[in-house]
Amino acid sequence: MAAGDCSAVELVEACIAAQGAAADLNAVVAATAEQARAAARHADQRRHRNEARPLEGIPVAVKDIFCTRGVATTAGSRILDGFVPAYESTVGAKLWDAGAILLGKTNMDEFAMGSSNETSWWGPVRNPWSPAAGPSLVPGGSSGGSAAIVAARAVPAALGTDTGGSIRQPASFCGVVGLKPTYGRCSRWGIIAFASSLDQAGPLTRSVADAALILQHIAGFDPKDSTSADLPVPDLHAALHGDVKGLRVGIPAEYRLDTLPVAVGDLWEQGIAWFRAAGAELLDVSLPHTRYALPAYYIVAPAEASANLARYDGVRFGRRSAGRDPDDLYTRTRREGFGEEVRRRIMIGGYVLSEGYYDAYYLRAQQVRTRIAEDFRTAFREVDVLLTPTAPSSAFPEGAKTDDPLAMYVNDIFTVPASLAGLPAISVPAGLDDDRLPLGLQLIGRAFDEATLLRAAAALENAVGTLPSPMGSA
Amino acid sequence: MTGARTIVGATGEWELVIGLEVHAQVATRSKLFSGAATAFGAEPNAQVSLVDAAMPGMLPVINRAAVDQAIRTGLALGAEVNRFSVFDRKNYFYPDLPQGYQISQYRHPIVGTGELRVDLPDGRTRVVGIERLHLEQDAGKLVHDRSATDSHVDLNRAGIPLMEIVSRPDLRDWEEAGAYLRKLRALLRAIGSCDGNMEEGSLRADANVSVRRPGASLGTRCELKNLNSVRFLMRAIEVEARRQVAVIEAGEAVRQETRLYDPQRNETRAMRSKEDAHDYRYFPDPDLLPLRLSEARIEQLRDSLPELPDEIRERLIGEYGLTPYDASVLVAEPGAPGFFEAAARGRSGKRVANWIVTNLFGALNEAGRPLAESPVSAETLGQLVGLIEDGTISDRIARDVFEEMFRTGASPQSIVDARGLRQIQDTDAIDAAIDAALAANPGQLEQYHAGKTKVLGWFVGQVMKATRGQANPALVNARLRQKLDADGAG
Fold this sequence. Notes:
The complex is a heterodimer. By secondary structure, chain A is α/β, with parallel strands linked by helices.
């Protein structure tokens, strides 16, 4: 656009057309075409006046968990039917201030609770890699709509949120880059909360450079979020030179699961080989408490969610079911407004916090969390980044795991530990499996060291080379 | 012996055990976790931010000024200020609680143990242990009178900062509980951390009450909720303790429950029992970082404290010779120590204190007015005491003058002058009145000489009556005695 090859209006029109063509994916739950067109005209005018901002005219799709001023926001839940925020999330406002254009709110698992986008009130999202014949594959979740719409080339970038893998796992399933920044790097203000101590916004893009660019403009301290970090954001673009000579890359022994599919294991070995070839130093490390991460996560996250979702009571906003008295109103509103997975997690959360169980579950899970963070600190004394698979499989068919919550939860096995420790992590598309479905490799970095993480990710991306697109061509 | 009141039931004596949980609204301009205003009396829902209404995606940010006031209060209570404290979520559903949880402090409060000295009317002092002080947000208010079918919610109070100050169960009767609450209110007002205005709900108390045989182990307690005046607190405790005694003496057991006091009927009623008590599922609020306080901040706040009520009390006792009780009453009333010191300049402090505590406070109480609106100023009250001290008027006359001062706001001198109340010091005039009284009552005179010396007092009364109370009573007494005894000898 800076070279004048294409205007913002042309880019936005192309994306609108592509989103229309990809409507069968069910990736977008609220289109914002008209306001995007107006914003594109405005962007072109600015560029003509030499007032272009860093992201001037770039369309970005936003997960429906970000509150968008004047645009319906439901977090994939019936209970927020009709809710139109009067405010913009901090992260969203930063994007628009940098010149980006909102193009679509994307489908997601209800309140970000899911790993397949099947818990959405809006229905499942179809992975663009699904074979033309045969069942639809899931895009992963919870940011399934964001991953799918970027994979479908219908928008260059999308925002997601990651609580236990909700950016990285769908990025892996859809063959795009997904970056979860350090907890505290981006403001959570205006993002509908799932698990406050874990939620973090981040980009899903086609390249590592684009992910770095988006992060550069959404990161930073926000006085309205007490948990956001008052630290400067380094120049992330400068980190993308691709040189990893001497970079110490750790391979955690505990991630070598017996149950790992051969293709995933092979790709991991390939990743190790790529880094070695690029001059990095490969080291085996141990993260001994890894196996407690998933159980701890499925205590902490539901506990926080059970309180975070208490405000959806039908009293002030969203959907209300009629009730005889306040208790009846709550019960009906929440029973009819929340889906099964959300109700299950609220119940788990209430249970682990209840009197007599708090110490055995919640407190113990927090202790595990501390141990896991210590494991990482110890490892990062010897290495600069960790390399692991992003997910234990490629995309699976719709309905394959909906009857077995535990099988579904296992999707997060490689992503949850970094979440519990608050560390930045990125999924980079690294290859295809035997079914020609994308697989990602995950890199995990030190807290607030997104620069090193992106440097390694760019090197991995270089080594992978060009992968096919879901539509067949590169 | 504690000297506290007990309840004598049909089967003997019962002792009370009381602990108070006081909710004090922190005097801040904005709410505990949002920028919305806290002023009293605004239109419903005029002071509600997106955070207070718990809109999706909103986050709390701690109000530093509220934390400062909690620290100052802790320091004023001589309590441990915890360098590390944590905000927890207390989970329950109610329409006046938009988040579905109250942000409070449960496992790690900002202030730990301290104590409060409470001086009682009979001269005893009770040192009451403070268990803890923590910060929490207030809930909103349900409004039922706007519609016959619907209830409305006013969220102006939602998120207002409160300090919950929890005492140990060290109080032994309702007088002590009332004195504790007054003392605490005076302390909060003196340091400015709470305006102490109970009518506007800035200060409310919950009382845990149980009864037991003197010295026996603790009985089952009931919690009395939301007592919003000192008088109601005292009456509620007394009536609840009597109820418990009656229950036990009837052979039944007191049920642990939450009860409400009905001032109209002067009775308490069960609200909910222990069985249907909430499990609040407390856990640390992940939206807020633990509160860590630096030594420098604490020391700076310590330096910001004014002279505390106990320090003022000690000074009033030491400098002015006040009784501990009078000094305590003065420090418990906002502005009273300053009023006293202004009035007592150059006069007997003891006498001035007595006038303030007995007469002025009595009159103000009857009129339902605070000291700040007293028609009698420190200056005029001082003048009144001056007129007593220089013999211009007697104590008795002074009481009449005071009444008129309170009614009209006039100066005591002008009242004395206008009504001719100046005390008769002239012995000739007094002698004349005595002679007249003796001459007019030969019968009583004879009784006196027959040994009924009590008649002396009766004659003093006659003389005072004849002089419309203006004769100096000491002088009348002395002259009368002299005359009667002289007559007897002659």
